[in-house]
Design brief:
Elements lengths: L7 H27 L3 H4 L21 E4 L9 H5 L6 E4 L7 E2 H4 L3 H8 L12 H6 L6 E2 L2 E4 L2 E4 L1 E4 L2 E4 L4 E3 L5 E3 L2 H53 L1 H29 L10 H4 L12 H24 L1 H20 L6 H24 L3 E7 L19 H5 L4 E8 L3 H4 L1 H35 L12 H12 L1 H27 L6 H35 L3 H13 L2 H34 L17 H39 L12 H13 L3 H12 L1
Antiparallel strand pairs: 1-2, 3-4, 5-6, 7-8, 9-10, 11-12
Catalytic activity: choline(out) + n H(+)(in) = choline(in) + n H(+)(out); ethanolamine(out) + n H(+)(in) = ethanolamine(in) + n H(+)(out)
Protein name: Choline transporter-like protein
Subcellular location: Cell membrane; Mitochondrion outer membrane
Length: 695
């Protein structure tokens, strides 16, 4: 190596990164001191107390009861996410129908009725006084707990909505109402909690299947490791095995989709189109429709055809790429510890993700309870904030029928005003730290493989521990370089997040020009992110070789690749395509196994598989995380190929193969890449131009 010590720019960037990390830790401590995740888990009564929370007076009252569920039919519910009726925590939902008037005449019934009333109700109080003070609901109806909330046990008999086997009920004020009047209130209340309901079901599925998910990920990790080890010793055979297996796995997917499509023929409701069905929170419903399996079959068939056509047109280049992978296998053979380095990167990324997620939850739950005035008649103070001690206030005197109820969590302090800024900082530092960890892994591997390439006598001239030596150099000399490169990428990514947020907010807008401009900006920044990743990756390789600063390395790496564009397109990208097929194979194998296990399609697994609300939750989790695991292991090969390729291009420009300036490349690598360059008609002119430029 012609290694250059750390420069001033690296020191400045390193200091800025350390300050940002310390501020991030301070944000986390502040969020943990102010936040309360119980607000997400437990339902909240009208006083802002948590139902069923252990260690509180409401620990034995886990269910939320609405005094008048029909008030949830108000359109304001969908805007304020709160029903304008008293809500209290109870131990269980009402099991029988009764009104306050009737229950008042029977001591046992009234004692039962008082379990759904506020404190302070006595047998000496009259019914008008109880109702005026809002201490008890006017009626009770049979209800069932749903997401820890009491909802009327609505049924259907002869096409008529019923509650408690009756189509009508007494509302407690002497009026007979149809049971269907309850439907709007239940519907609106359900809309308010639908998102939380789905999240809770998904959370429950994770709690039931987390160990099986871990087993699936361990299988993916072992499979990836096995492929990488076999690729080390049997590179040529394993590449062809990967190609054939990918074609067979996708072909089996097409066959399975066709069998499911044919099996649903004639089944009731299977001919419904996806457009007619609309959005469903239970994704399993889509698997009962023939059109879903037809779409899967078409998509897989298109992917199969594309892969086969690419293999046919690139068959000669694939042979050269296989030879390059063999050379990379020799390099990895001398740097075996590089195979396990992705585990270190995975642990660091898991820590970054966990810190971000916990901080985000605590920040989002660090608001204070806000109370608002709810009323049935006209009132000047309607929907204004109020104090929980509302009974003696001026607002209560002017609006006797109004109530002060818990509305939502918010706040007016300086901390709450800047809460959105803290959330933004949390997201930005998440991107920065995650990109820094990824960049550290890339530079560490690049330094290890570069030490192999530039060793004149391999492996005698290599460090004893190439990976650890490269990691030490990266942290000691290039923390600032890594921070600067990851900062640029993070800025682009946070802009993309903001554009997605704007797109979500403007979905209802009819301005086509705005939509077009937003779409163009999203596309441009997506391309910019890919370009920055490409620049950063090659810059880290140059930094690992020469130790120069980021900007200099990025410029040299970019123009070095531009001077060897033909080789990049022919070899480097074909090799990336072959490695992508390897990732696809592992994801396909693990995904098929997860589908048959969690869906219960195989009788041998029926008693073992957990019972889930959505069996697609663990399947998608296993598939997505398996891809990242496979990507982590195959990235070792990808980084090795990219490093060897860049070192080869640099070697050609620095040396001429003479005794004074011998090539550092192995004879095999020289034969692979030089032969390919010789086949290119423009190679002679390109080398001549390079010589002129060097002179």
């Amino acid at each position: 190596f012609n290694y250059v010590p750390v420069e001033k720019m690296n020191i400045v960037c390193c200091i800025l990164f350390i300050i940002a990390i310390l501020a991030y830790i301070a944000v986390g401590i502040l969020a943990w001191s102010q936040g309360d995740p119980r607000k997400v888990i437990y339902p909240t009564d009208s006083r802002g107390q948590f139902c069923g929370q252990a260690g509180t007076p409401l620990a034995d009252k886990p269910v939320l009861f609405y005094f008048n569920i029909m008030k949830c039919a108000s359109p304001m519910v969908l805007l304020e996410f709160q029903c304008p009726t008293t809500q209290m925590c109870v131990d269980k939902c009402p099991e029988k129908f009764m009104t306050l008037v009737k229950a008042y005449t029977n001591k046992n019934d009234f004692d039962y009725y008082k379990t759904f009333c506020k404190e302070g109700v006595t047998n000496t109080m009259g019914i008008p006084e109880i109702l005026k003070q809002g201490l008890c609901p006017a009626m009770l109806m049979p209800s069932k707990p749903f997401t820890r909330r009491c909802f009327p046990a609505l049924g259907e008999r002869g096409g008529v909505i019923t509650v408690g086997n009756n189509s009508k009920f007494d509302d407690g004020r002497g009026n007979m109402r149809d049971a269907k009047d309850l439907l709007d209130g239940v519907t609106n209340a359900t809309v308010v909690i639908e998102a939380r309901q789905v999240v809770m079901k998904i959370f429950e599925d994770f709690t039931q299947s987390w160990y099986w998910i871990l087993i699936g990920l361990v299988i993916a990790m072992l499979t990836s490791l096995l492929f990488i080890v076999l690729l080390r010793f049997l590179a040529g055979i394993m590449v062809w095995v990967m190609i054939v297996m990918v074609i067979l796995v996708i072909g089996y997917g097409i066959f399975h989709c066709y069998m499911e499509y044919a099996a649903l023929k004639g089944t009731a409701g299977s001919d419904v189109t996806l457009q007619q069905l609309g959005f469903q929170t239970d994704f399993a419903v889509y698997l009962q429709i023939r059109q879903t399996w037809l779409a899967f079959m078409i998509i897989l068939a298109i992917v199969e055809v594309i892969i086969i056509l690419l293999l046919i047109f690139l068959r000669k280049r694939i042979l050269i790429a296989i030879a390059l992978i063999k050379e990379a296998s020799r390099a990895i053979g001398h740097v075996m510890s590089s195979l396990f380095y992705p585990l270190f990167t995975f642990v660091l990324l898991a820590m970054v993700v966990a810190y971000w997620a916990v901080t985000a939850v605590f920040l989002s739950t660090s608001n204070e309870p806000i109370y608002k005035v709810f009323n049935e008649t006209a009132c000047d103070y309607s929907r204004t904030t109020c104090n929980p001690n509302y009974s003696t206030s001026l607002e209560k005197a002017r609006c006797p029928d109004s109530m002060c109820l818990f509305a939502f969590y918010g706040g007016e302090t300086a901390y709450h005003k800047y809460l959105i800024g803290l959330q933004f900082y949390n997201v930005f530092l998440f991107f920065w730290c995650a990109n820094f960890v990824t960049a550290l892994g890339q530079m560490t591997l690049a330094g290890a493989f570069a030490s192999y390439y530039w060793a004149f006598v391999k492996p005698d001239d290599m460090p004893a521990f190439p990976v650890f030596s490269s990691l030490g150099r990266s942290l000691r000399y290039h923390t600032g370089t890594l921070a600067f490169g990851s900062l640029i990428l993070s800025i682009v990514q946070i802009i993309r997040v903001l554009l997605e947020y704007l797109d979500h907010k403007l979905q209802g807008a009819q301005n086509k020009c705005t939509k077009f401009l937003l779409c163009c900006m999203k596309c441009c920044f997506w391309c910019l992110e890919k370009f920055v990743k490409f620049i950063n990756r090659n810059a880290y390789i140059i930094v690992a070789i020469y130790g120069k600063n980021f900007c200099t390395s990025a410029r040299e790496g970019f123009f070095l690749l531009m001077r060897n564009m033909v080789r990049v397109a022919v070899l480097d990208k074909v090799t990336d395509f072959l490695l992508f097929l390897g990732k696809l194979l592992i994801v396909g194998l693990v995904g098929i196994f997860a589908f048959f296990f969690f869906s219960g399609r195989v009788k041998a697994f029926e008693s073992t598989a957990p019972h889930l609300h959505y069996y697609w939750v663990p399947i998608l989790t296993v598939v997505v995380l398996s891809y990242f695991i496979a990507h982590g292991f195959f990235s070792v090969y990808a980084m090795c190929v990219d490093t060897l390729f860049l070192c080869f291009c640099e070697d050609l420009e620095r040396n001429d193969g003479s005794a004074e300036r011998p090539y550092y490349m192995s004879s095999t690598l020289h034969e692979i890449l030089w032969k390919n360059a010789a086949e290119d008609p423009s190679s002679a002119r390109q080398r001549a131009d390079e010589d002129i430029e060097l002179k």
